[in-house]
Amino acid sequence: MIHHIESGKHGRGLCSHFGKVCSDKTKALIGAGNRGRKPSASAIEGSRRLRLGRTYEEIYGVELAEKIKEKQGLNSNKEACSRGGRRGGKVRCPKTWRTGTEFLKGSVPWNKGLILGPQSEELKLQNALGVAAAHARGAYHTNKPTSLEHALDLLLQDAGLEYEAQKRFGRYIVDAYVPSRNLVFEADGMFWNHHKDKEREAKRDMYLLKVGIAAVIHLIDEDLEPWMAI
Question: Where does the DUF559 domain lie (predicted)?
């Protein structure tokens, strides 16, 4: 780009590229001697300082500023869909930004308010008290029994055992608890053998044994099959 510099008063000139009065140092940085060369670090820094705190219209003029913003996708009244939806634009292209709602005004990111660092003991206690109070007033409801859990209910009824369905122990809910034998029964489906389920169940079983449960009995589909059709 050729920069035209007109001479002015007091050894300063008007730079047509930046649209303001430039010092001799700035003229030397952007003058004819730098044409065709890669700008130096000092030239880039000088250019940045001239642009600092100024709008595109103040630097380039209204017409050129509109072209630059349109090319960079900065116009808020035009969709930036020609090259795949740019981050600078306020309007997202639905074809390329299928899940870009976090960038739009009025939306809340999924991790807003999420504590990523370690929690203090005071905060842990506060959260635990809040959860306990919610359980006390019935804010947490159990899920609707599955067909396997219904079959487990019929099995325990046929055995003549009194039990509590969906019994809570701390943070865990078990399918059935028999107080007279201090036993916990779990109805496990055909997908229970997944490694993540096994790890989760193992942690829960260890917790139940730690709090005093005599044993945790897992029943699979084959065990409950006679009661499935009832």
Answer: 154-214
